[in-house]
């Protein structure tokens, strides 16, 4: 895909590809930079960011911005990203593309090319922990 888009395969790009193969869910350029710097000490954060941006431009990966930080992810199919207000993790939420497009078309006469959904809330893990904590602190009534 990169070659077809005119990008040469460089050692830096290969290192980023290897990082992506490890399958981290959501990551920043800084996350990738810190890992790759261990094996390629001369690489810069700007280089890593530019590589990730190029990969996103050709839809090898997805990118989205949250509070001034650009996040990247391997998942390129339509889904929502939920940022947990408790633990700070970003969790993928599957959505029905057809239903979403129908809803958008009902409310707009626009043509839609790329949809990025980002929501804040409480992730399933933290919600379960909160529920468990509430259950354990309830007084037992006899």
UniProtKB/TrEMBL annotation:
**Alphabetically, which GO biological process terms does the record hold?**
negative regulation of DNA-templated transcription; regulation of secondary metabolite biosynthetic process
Q: Which UniProt keywords apply?
A: DNA-binding, Repressor, Transcription, Transcription regulation, Zinc
Q: Which Pfam families match?
A: FUR
- CDD domains recorded: Fur_like
Q: Which GO terms describe its molecular function?
A: DNA-binding transcription factor activity; transcription cis-regulatory region binding; zinc ion binding
- Family to which this protein belongs: Belongs to the Fur family.
PANTHER family membership: FERRIC UPTAKE REGULATION PROTEIN, ZINC UPTAKE REGULATION PROTEIN
Q: What is this protein called?
A: Iron-uptake regulator related protein
